[in-house]
Design goal:
The protein has about 375 residues and is an alpha/beta fold. It has 17 helices and twelve strands.
Length: about 375
């Protein structure tokens, strides 16, 4: 077993052990991938401020999210088709998150259903909702999340229509994969993944199949999904879903200060500054660049989290210094999942926590909750002077 010292080590193992179409699904953005790249490269422009001769005993990475204490300021983001990255992937990720003491968020487009994860997760998890045209489906899945005792609803706002991801089209991405000759040849080189998939019944979108009338096979599912994302999702519908859910509500996909004010006004308990990992509007600013303006716009009206681009504990520290109360990771935990299953998700969390703890200490901070702009050096033009 190779020595894992950073998230990139997990990424390299993941690439070796997971079929190409699912690796590409994770490791890609839309169109030119400019935003996908800048989500990570913009973090490198922020520098950490080293401070010395401080008391570094009694350090803690713990913070709170939605009033609950968690081990570190990281939650697992909703990622579609997680169960194609590793057999029963959502269950493995939920278990790893629960054991580590951080939140797990299940995607609407998961391979394991809400009920599958609820039956196997030792703690409540969050559920991410895509709003579909089929209102009966939306109403039913909200009730299913409530029945599963999901402790928060994460409503994604930035996927009313799908951004084009060239690699997915060229690979003919489906879940499960079509048994074409190239796919079978590639899967034959991933024996552990293939054996695991043969042994599980969870190989398609189980939140949808069996819950939507007329969707019985892959062709039906693909057609339904491609037609169902709701282009008429507006703030009125957000309010309706808020009232129907009645519990903690997180709005994900905020990338503009005006939208952040609207999100706060509709009563969101939290919002996630996110560009969907660079998978939707290519050419948009990175999440870390717009984060300060959104924090300034909403003040203490609601909690502000951030995702898109976090690959290390140093990135987490920088996000908190720029105003986020906590962060979400997607690709970072998927790398671990595809590389080593549940143990790989745990390893990804351990790597990030250790990097955060050491970097915090070298910046002279004892507790993650105390991180502020004092811990970073930010270029004067970082947020941009946009006309």
């Amino acid at each position: 077993m190779p020595v894992i010292t950073c998230i990139d080590d997990l990424k390299q193992l993941y690439k070796k052990r997971t079929p190409k179409m699912f690796y590409d699904y994770c490791e890609s953005g839309s169109y030119t991938e400019q935003t996908f790249r800048e989500n990570t490269t913009d973090f490198a422009k922020i520098r950490l401020r080293q401070r010395v001769a401080r008391d570094l005993t009694g350090r803690s990475t713990a913070v709170s999210m939605l009033g609950n204490q968690i081990t570190m300021p990281v939650a697992l983001a909703p990622v579609g088709s997680t169960g194609m990255q590793s057999p029963d992937g959502e269950i493995k990720a939920a278990r790893a998150a629960a054991a580590f003491g951080v939140p797990f968020t299940l995607s609407t487009m998961s391979i394991c259903s809400i009920e599958d994860v609820a039956a196997h997760s030792p703690t409540p998890f969050w559920f991410q909702l895509y709003v579909m045209k089929d209102e009966d489906f939306v109403d039913a899945i909200i009730e299913r999340a409530r029945a599963a005792k999901c402790s928060a609803l994460v409503l994604t706002l930035d996927l009313q229509i799908l951004g084009q991801r060239h690699k997915d089209l060229k690979n003919g991405l489906t879940s499960p994969p079509k048994l074409t000759l190239p796919n079978m040849i590639n899967m034959a080189t991933k024996p552990q993944w293939s054996m695991g998939m043969l042994q599980t019944p969870r190989r398609t979108f189980r939140n949808i199949v069996g819950h939507v009338k007329g969707v019985t096979d892959l062709a039906d599912l693909t057609k339904w999904a491609n037609e169902q994302f709701d282009p008429m999702l507006d703030w009125g519908k957000v309010r309706r879903i808020r009232d129907q859910w009645g519990g903690k509500l997180i709005l994900k996909g905020i990338l503009d200060a005006d939208d952040a004010r609207m999100a706060a006004d509709v009563g969101a308990d939290a919002m996630v500054v996110s560009n969907h990992g660079g998978r939707q509007l290519d050419g948009a600013l990175s999440a870390i660049r717009v984060l300060p303006s959104i924090v300034k716009a909403v003040g203490d009206q609601t909690e502000v989290y951030m995702d898109s681009g976090i690959r290390s504990g140093q990135d987490v520290l920088k996000a908190l210094a720029m105003g986020a109360k906590s962060t979400f990771i997607g690709r970072s935990f998927i790398y671990g999942l595809g590389a080593m299953g549940q143990a790989g998700v745990t390893k990804a969390l351990e790597v990030i926590q250790k990097e955060l703890d050491i970097s915090m200490a070298l910046c002279g901070v004892q507790k993650a909750a105390q991180i502020s702009r004092e811990q970073v050096l930010v270029p004067k033009d970082f947020e941009g002077d946009w006309a």
